[in-house]
Amino acid sequence: MPIEILMPALSPTMEEGNLSKWVKKEGDTVSAGDVIAEIETDKATMEVEAVDEGVLGKILIEEGAEGVKVNTPIAVLLEEGEDASAINTAAAAPAAEAAPAAEAAPASPAVVTSPAPAATGDEYVSPCAPIKVEVGQDPEIPAGTEMRSTTVREALRDAMAEEMRRNENVFLMGEEVGEYQGAYKISQGLLDEFGEKRVIDTPITEHGFTGLAVGAAMSGLNPIVEFMTFNFAMQAIDQIINSAAKTLYMSGGQMGAPIVFRGPNGAAARVGAQHSQDYAAWYASIPGMKVIQPYTAADAKGLLKAAIRDPNPVVFLENEILYGQHFDVPVMDDYVLPIGRAKVVREGTDVTLVSWGIGMTYALPAAEELAKQGVSAEVIDLRSIRPLDIDTILASVRKTGRLVTVEEAFPIASVSSEIAFQTQEQAFDFLDAPVLRVTGKDVPMPYAANLEKLALPTAKEVIDAVKAVTYTA
Amino acid sequence: MAGTETKSTGGRSRGASKARGAMKNTPAIAEFSKEEELKAYREMLLIRRFEEKAGQLYGMGVIGGFCHLYIGQEAVVVGMEMSKVQGDQMITSYRDHGHMLACGMDPNGVMAELAGRQGGLSKGKGGSMHMFSKEKEFYGGHGIVGAQVPLGTGLAFTNKYKENGNVALTFFGDGAVNQGQVYEAFNMAKLWNLPVIYVIENNKYGMGTSVERASSTTDLSQRGQSFGIPGVQVDGMDVRAVKAATDYAMEWCREGNGPYILEMITYRYRGHSMSDPAKYRSKDEVQKMKSEHDPIEQVRARLLEKKWASEDELKAIDKEVRGIASAAADFAQSDSEPDASELYTDIIL
Fold it and tell me: In terms of CATH architecture, what is A147-330?
């Protein structure tokens, strides 16, 4: 059967081209790899190489032809033992079939790419809704359980130590995590207990050691990567996003990266613009990733343990200012919290305050003060940024009719933006006022003490926002 | 062009004499048995025919986007594969089809992935640049130049952590050697003596820029010098030289000496990707490599000379691998596209 040589597409976007030159002529013997013709596209002149062996039986498109559509037969190749008489049938029949098929092609994608979530009834279902992840409930804390006052720092250390005892494939790697005992003393004592095989001091090479850890995760280990601060993780963000978060999808589910990236995130105090940024929104926008930003020591412990056990890449955002704060942590053998579950930490009826991480240090005093003024605020600690527990927020907003978000990050394209968007999308009719946000200001973090204070949110700004949405200002 | 003089001296190239502890007593060329020559011939030919078929399917619009062919470089991955033992891993860049075929991944699955079909190795969701196989210890298929170097170092980290005796073969090109993260990885690999072979496939061009125009020093085998990582240049067009050098480097790694660099001097016949007209090099240069250094022709000539195979027997091998490539192409074209529901799977566990 003679082989048709088709006009090739030579770039992702080429639809037609000019057949500028035939290098071989009818009757020439052609081997695989021989250049047989030259084709001109809008970008360049390209050579067409033969894939099969044989004799160039007939040229169907003459040299100089312009606007030859991709997949048009341009010549016929005769295989060993065939003569020219075979050409007529070949040139006529398959060509006639090929043409309509090629024309029909553009119509077909519509069939295969219809979005999965179909709307039922008259309810609108967003085609760009975030994927749903099954999330469990917080574990019961049995009555009479001892509550121990613990710093966030100790809670994080305890979580890592417990998980390292539980699974020998868990290890900690980062700058100064070993002999120095942690730049912020989070890994204190871990080197003594687990040795240098599992508590690894790295050189100052975020991009390199992050990639190394992701490779280790892909091949069966469970690394915890500590960034001295998430500001330095910008050096490594390609490995976090392109290598860790996308591999499961790109491999069709065959392999992923069970890894935790953790460290202080956001503004410390007086450390200037390059060391003061909150990255929650950056990582939370990536499918394939989980993002946690705890406030209390109990949540830090329970969620870090969950993150280490999670089969996905998890970004765990801590805050330097919170490290030394004390909270009650239940004394339990294995305190693990569900990732993706927000917590109503104060019930109320007039307005919903949603915050997380250090944002809670503005939201909670504001709620306290508002209560004195007769305004009942419901306060939700989001705890996880992705998956986002929008259901808990919506349930509250349906009750209060008003929503104010509180965070330290920049306002534009922030987590607050996303919460406000999803709330108006799903609870528009329940809102009695616009959603307001209290955030860091839209400026690089200044150094001067007074300016730094102005750049960060305050409890007063939260109170003002609540007064605005309750029309009590 | 200096780079085309590939010094078919394998492990005894200039690099070897400078590298600490490198290849002193190793033959530069592995003696191949008849079975090894035939195996190398078949494996290289399979890659060549498969890639030619892929090029053809790209031309027909069956394969979209980017498609980087391995034609010309076959001896590198085939020779290295012949030196691997169970559990040794491979990881490479986006020019990955040859590596997948060499380590035994299903040609139908590879071609279907190139075409974006449900039977593809990544269910059609990875594409030409992104395929993986836990079973064959193949870790991709990475699209960001140089990113696989720290990742491959991490595979070696796992080997050392688990004390499994395996070696991670980490492939990258002459374009990637100037990425900063490569040197971050080199440093840690030597600092912790990780069992990793860095395989620099020097095909002379990082996309359209020659090594000479991109690199301040062009003996890439010596890029590990400041970290204490030995390295040699190897004639990457001679599968026996590749095998000999790899055997040596494997032993070096398995003995706990840490990383080793093999710079494979090779050549890609086709453009960087399908849409590259390759105007940055002369036709003579390409033709010279094809006619004087072709990795497959070298084996073929030896097989005929030693009368280990007849023309007819070699033709039968060609027919067999052509059949595999054609069957893969047929499978890729007849297989259906992934179900729309696949859009939302495999994102998070």
Answer: 3-Layer(aba) Sandwich (3.40)
- Would you call A425 a catalytic residue per the annotation? no
Q: Report the helix count and the strand count for chain B, using DSSP H and E.
A: 12, 8
Determine the topology of domain A3-104 in CATH: OB fold (Dihydrolipoamide Acetyltransferase, E2P) (2.40.50)
Is the predicted pLDDT of residue B277 greater than 90, yes or no? no
| Separation of alpha carbons A161 and A167, rounded Å | 10
Domain boundaries, chain A: 3-104, 147-330, 343-469
Residue of B nearest to A170 (CA): B161
Query: Does the distance separating the beta carbons of B191 and A203 come in below 8 Å?
Result: yes
A9 to B60: CB separation less than 8 angstroms, yes or no? yes
| pTM of the model as a whole | 0.87
A282-305 average pLDDT score: 98
Residue B15, pLDDT score? 38
- The ipTM estimated for the assembled molecules is 0.88
Q: Are both A3-104 and A343-469 of the same fold?
A: no
Is the Cβ pair B277, A45 closer than 8 Å? yes
Q: What is residue A96's predicted lDDT score, i.e. its pLDDT?
A: 39
| Contact residues on chain B for A33, CB-CB shorter than 8 A | 52, 71, 269, 290
Q: In what order do the strands lie in the sheet with B260-265?
A: B138-141, B89-92, B168-173, B196-202, B260-265, B231-235
Q: How far apart are alpha carbons A243 and A250 in whole angstroms?
A: 10
Give the three-state DSSP class for A244: helix
Check residue B26 and give its pLDDT: 54
- Asked if residue B20 has pLDDT above 80, the reply is no
**Interface contact B344, partner A, CB < 8 A:** yes
Q: Is the dihedral of CA A381, A385, A390, A391 positive or negative?
A: negative
Residue B344 and residue A288: Cβ atoms within 8 Å? no
Interface test with B, best of A167, A249, A283 (most B CBs within 10 A): A249
**In CATH, which of 3.40.50.920, 3.40.50.300, 3.30.310.180, 3.40.50.970 is domain A343-469?**
3.40.50.920
* Number of structural domains chain B divides into: 1
